[in-house]
Amino acid sequence: VSQNAQIWEQKLQEAVRCWHNFRECERIISDWLMKAEQLISEKHIDTKEIVESHKVFFERVNERWIHDLVQTAQDLRNCLPTDQQRTIVNSVERLQSKWKEVLSFAPLHLMRLEFRLDETTFHQYIKDIDKEINIEQQAFNKQENVDAIIARNKEFFVNRGVVLEVEHCIENMKKIAESYSKWQPTDNSL
Predict the structure, then answer these.
(1) How far is the C-alpha of 45 from the C-alpha of 6, rounded, in Å?
(2) In the chain, is it the N or the C terminus that has fewer CB atoms within a 10 Å radius of its CB?
(3) Which residues, 6 or more positions from 111, have their beta carbon under 8 angstroms from its beta carbon?
């Protein structure tokens, strides 16, 4: 009887350990997925730093977490009666499915972020260019010194590198849109 009690105690301790390990793996993955979904649904992304933080988050995903979940689930199932194993299997399948979905969506999310950031920068440059052209037009209409207007134009468009920056934005957006269309051929939103 004493020996049987010890065997049952060991089995119980093993089951508790397996449950703890499984729940811990499940928590880590659930927390990561929740954070990933928050980042993906974030609407106001207007700085390079925010885009970089999203990149870092998705690039630092640890594939070992999902492997550990599967392993701890298997260990736990070995401790449970057959009729109680289905909930564990369902939980693992649900998390694996969500994991794959988020990881397949992450590159598209990052491309959209980078595109929108370049697009915002591009629009700001266009506003600045429009403002500068209006100022130069007004100066010309007031018959101000043409050489001074030309010098101002050269300073703004050439020396400050505005044209190069606009071209850089357009080139980046073009590259991102081409890459995006390879992933999502039916989505023309970029």
Answers:
(1) 59
(2) N
(3) 176, 179, 180, 183, 190
Cβ proximity of 169 and 116 under 8 Å: no
> Mean pLDDT, to the nearest integer, of 23-45?
93
For the stretch 123-153, pLDDT in tens is: 999 999 999 999 999 999 999 999 999 999 9
CB atoms within 10 A of CB 52: 12
Where do we find the tokens 């694996």? 96
Across the chain, how many H-helices and E-strands are there? 6, 0
Rounded Cα distance between 33 and 133, Å, is: 48
Q: Which residues of 11-31 are buried (b: 16+ CB within 10 A; e: fewer)?
A: eeeeeeebbebbeebbeebee
What is d(CA 71, CA 90) in angstroms, rounded to the nearest whole number?
15
CA distances 67 to 25, 91, 96, Å, are: 9, 14, 10
Specify burial of residue 92 (Cβ count, 10 A radius: 0-12, 13-18, 19+).
Answer: buried
